[in-house]
Design brief:
Blueprint (H helix, E strand, L loop, with lengths): L19 H4 L2 H15 L8 H17 L5 H10 L18 H14 L4 E6 L2 H19 L1 H11 L14 H11 L3 H16 L2 H15 L2 E9 L3 E7 L4 E3 L12 E9 H8 L5 H10 L14 E3 L6 E3 L5 E21 L5 E7 L12 E17 L4 E7 L17 E5 L2 E2 L2 E2 L2 H25 L4 E4 L7 E2 L5 E2 L1 H11 L18 E4 L6 H19 L3 H4 L9 H14 L1 H23 L6 H10 L1 H8 L9 E6 L4 H16 L5 H9 L3 H129 L12 H16 L2
Antiparallel strand pairs: 1-19, 2-3, 2-12, 4-5, 5-8, 6-7, 8-9, 8-10, 10-11, 13-14, 15-18, 16-17
Helix pairs in contact: 3-13, 5-10, 8-23, 9-18, 9-20, 10-18, 13-15, 19-20, 21-22, 21-23, 22-23
């Protein structure tokens, strides 16, 4: 893509084999800068390589922002309009339809939504061996977890890690080995890289602009600077003004030179160049930039002098000039000298790039040399002969295990790179966007030319309509009546007597070709979707509730595949920046101010491990860019987590551990492992529960049998005791009965004796009583007889009534009781 017409001009590239002292001179840098300018041409020239690419990039940016030029649509519509010049296009809104800006935002936001971050891993042999030792140590601790737990419980001793924090199985440990096993150097490097990216606001500013450039222009450029006094900076470079050497590599790893053009005022140029450029040269520079970039010629000769400071302010200080920051790779020879001292010791000494061996030396000297890549750079004021800040670039980040290599400070990536020109997503859709916009304008044109609903009026049918006394009405009068009342009057017969059609009929008008134009609009929209690969499921423009989840996932996966070149290019760019940053941190001089800043941010010991190479070789780091899960992946993972929680296949602690992982593959592996672990635990608990239930059932049966045996034994004991008690009671009853019988017999004998004696006495008493009664009776009879005799003789009254039978029985009963002693 070089401008071959400029090859014949004076000022080709200088000799690359020139010695180092020549390359360090300003004329060498000026010649190199002019050669770059000759190859790429001037920024304002449309035929130059830089101008042609600038034109393409500006066009893509206009379409990506929806502000493209609308004159092409006006010319096309005027040429297709048969009535050109009749003013029918005046009512059309030519504002571009913002279709491409939408697709660009979708791609950019989708890439940035995953929030990439660096994962640094030391890949040198020393670090690998240390890391393998740590991994083996962790594996051994996992295998001996139970023993370590018992040791902690018994003695309270904890080794490197608490046994409760260790994974349960080696399979679970392998998931965390890649992310959690970090050496001190890896931790320090990762912290330093993240801190640097944060200080530069890289993710939210520079990286976002670069991803937008990849989608819009197909190229992204970042420049890194590492001044020990000002820090490590990453700055955005506009691809429109970026120049580079011939390459076909989309990652630009084989660049020989690179640079970018900036437009700044001379006042800023004076600040950057300082005393390297005199005021006379500034005036000549201003002379060459008259009437460019809007610089006014009237300002050129104006001078204002400050009476206090005596400093002069020139009118041309406001002039805008083009400067080009450029770098190029070269190969220089670095010299060493092996020399023997007077004590016989042999030393190896660094002699730099400019070395001449001493002649006729007393001690033996043996020169050594090493060819290594170096970087030269400076700033060229375009269209002039001025270069400032030129020289060998210091503090170049290098791979410490191969110091002979060096890279430029520009990190560049491109998509679909061919012929020194990238092909972007927006560039591929410009034709379809034009046709879609033109269709949109044709729809507006059809709407503007659409006629309202009208009437067909037959004037002859409305003539001489008779309305009685009012006379005849003219057609215009009948039309007014129809418009006001909706009723019209007409003659149903013509003058010949035949019937005729209604003289007033409606015309229902519609927008001409509107459906065809809408179909055409949708066709070009589908073409843009097919070109970009962003389907309806990916941008959620027309979500369908009845669409299966699997179908949506397939559509999203297809969209991701379509934009993979942009995603991959952005990750490559991110990786390059992180690799440069960690190398820059490693070469920071310990005496510099920025070293102290990093030491405060990262830690003194971490910086000592990271940058120390006196006793140990510096660590060589490999950078992997890890991206967070996409929203669809997070939703899918969360759905699985919720399902597992509802089924009680995992615990809440497992869900939290799974959500903490940023990689979807690791999260899914951990989910499967924790589910498997939980299921095994549940099965084990069920087995234990079944065993416990069996043991409990067995214990219950044993208890029942024992209770039954005890019951039988107790029954037998009770029966024996009852029998024994019964025998004892029987014996006691027999003894008591015998005693009772004996006592009864004694009582009976005594009673019999007493009765007999009582009977005898009673008989005696009865006999005595009988005798007494007999005597009394005799006496009574004599008395009675005497009384009867006396009564008869009249000497006394009636005799008393004798006692009744009951009185006699009572008397005898009392007498009997008295005799028996009752």
């Amino acid at each position: 893509m070089y401008n071959n017409s400029n090859k014949s001009q004076k000022g080709g590239f200088p000799d690359p084999l020139a010695p180092a002292e020549v390359k360090e001179c300003t004329p060498y840098g000026l010649q190199y800068a002019k050669a770059i300018e000759n190859q790429w041409g001037k920024l304002q020239e449309g035929n130059s390589s830089l101008g042609r690419r600038n034109k393409t990039f500006d066009k893509c940016r206009d379409y990506a922002n929806g502000v493209q030029d609308t004159n092409i649509y006006k010319r096309l519509l005027n040429s297709m309009d048969p009535n050109a010049g009749d003013g029918s296009l005046m009512n059309i809104d030519y504002t571009p339809v913002p279709i491409l800006p939408k697709f660009v935002r979708i791609v950019v936001n989708k890439i940035l939504s995953r929030n990439p971050y660096p994962n640094l891993e030391a890949i040198d042999p020393l670090s690998s061996s240390e890391k393998n030792k740590e991994k083996n140590k962790l594996r051994m601790q996992v295998q001996a977890k139970e023993q370590l737990q018992k040791l902690k419980e018994k003695t309270g001793v904890v080794l490197d890690k608490d046994p409760s924090e260790l994974p349960d199985t080696l399979e679970e440990a392998e998931i965390f080995l890649d992310t959690n096993i970090k050496s001190d150097a890896e931790i320090a490097a990762q912290i330093g890289t993240n801190v640097t990216l944060s200080w530069n606001n890289f993710n939210d500013n520079t990286f976002r602009r670069c991803v937008n450039d990849l989608a819009t222009l197909g190229m992204a450029v970042i420049k890194r600077s590492n001044d020990p006094n000002y820090g490590i900076h990453t700055s955005y470079v506009d691809p429109v003004k970026f120049v580079h050497s011939q390459t076909e590599d989309p990652n630009f790893d084989d660049m020989i030179y690179a640079g970018h053009v900036r437009t700044i005022p001379i006042q800023e140029l004076k600040r950057l160049a300082g005393n390297q450029i005199s005021e006379e040269k500034y005036k000549k520079i201003a002379q060459s930039y008259k009437n460019r970039h809007g610089n006014k010629a009237s300002q050129y000769n104006k001078v204002n002098t400050d009476p206090i400071t005596g400093k002069s302010e020139y009118g041309y200080d406001e002039y805008l000039v083009d400067i080009m920051d450029f770098e190029f790779l070269s190969v220089d020879t670095i010299h060493f000298e092996e020399k023997e001292s007077r004590h016989g010791n042999v030393g190896f000494y660094y002699k730099g790039f400019n070395y001449k061996q001493k002649q006729s030396s007393v001690y033996e000297r043996k020169p050594h040399s090493l060819d290594m890549k170096v970087v030269y750079g400076g700033t060229y004021i375009m269209h002039t002969n001025c270069v400032y800040n030129y020289g060998r670039v210091k503090n170049i980040p290098k791979n410490v295990h191969d110091i002979s290599k060096a890279n430029l400070s520009y990190s560049v990536v491109a998509t679909n790179f061919r012929g020194m020109m990238p092909k972007s997503m927006v560039d591929s859709c410009i034709g379809f966007a034009d046709m879609l916009q033109l269709t949109h304008l044709k729809i507006q044109q059809a709407i503007a030319k659409a006629k309202p609903d009208g009437l067909i009026i037959d004037i002859e049918g409305l003539e001489n309509v008779q309305l009685g006394k009012g006379g005849e009405l003219q057609p215009l009068d009948l039309h007014d009546i129809y418009e006001q009342t909706g009723v019209f009057y007409y003659r149903s017969k013509n003058p010949e007597g035949g019937f005729q059609n209604p003289p007033i009929r409606e015309i229902g008008n519609s927008i001409r070709n509107i459906n065809e134009l809408i179909n055409l609009y949708n066709h070009y929209l589908r073409m843009i979707r097919d070109t970009t690969g962003i389907n309806e499921a990916m941008d959620a423009s027309t979500p369908k509730g009845d669409a299966l989840v699997g179908v949506q996932q397939q559509a999203i996966a297809a969209g991701n595949n379509a934009i993979y070149d942009i995603t991959n290019a952005s990750m490559v760019l991110y990786k390059k920046i992180c690799e440069d940053i960690v190398k820059c941190i490693q070469v920071l001089p310990p005496q510099s101010v920025i070293y102290e800043v990093y030491q405060n941010a990262v830690g003194k010991e971490n910086m000592k491990v990271l940058s120390s190479f006196k006793n140990l070789p510096m660590y060589n780091f490999g950078v992997q860019v890890v991206k967070e899960m996409e929203d669809e992946e997070k939703a899918y993972l969360e759905q699985n987590i919720q399902a597992a929680l509802m089924q009680k296949e995992i615990d809440l602690e497992d869900a939290l551990a799974i959500r903490d992982l940023k990689d979807i593959n690791q999260a899914e592996r951990l989910l499967i492992l924790r589910r498997k672990k939980r299921m095994e635990k549940v099965q084990q608990q069920q087995m234990q529960q079944m065993q416990m239930q069996g043991q409990q059932a067995q214990q219950v049966e044993q208890a029942k049998s024992q209770a039954k045996a005890q019951e039988l034994q107790m029954a037998a004991q009770l029966e024996a005791q009852s029998l024994q008690l019964k025998a004892q009671l029987d014996q006691q009853m027999a003894t008591l009965q015998h005693q009772y019988n004996k006592e009864i017999e004694l009582i009976r004998a005594n009673a019999s004796i007493e009765k007999r004696s009582a009977d005898g006495e009673s008989r005696k008493e009865i006999e005595t009583m009988k005798d007494d009664r007999k005597d009394e009776r005799v006496k009574k009879q004599a008395v009675e007889q005497s009384k009867l005799i006396s009564q008869r003789e009249g000497k006394r009254g009636e005799l008393e009534e004798p006692p009744s039978k009951e009185e006699n029985e009572s008397l005898f009963s009392g007498l009997g009781k008295l005799l028996t002693g009752e």
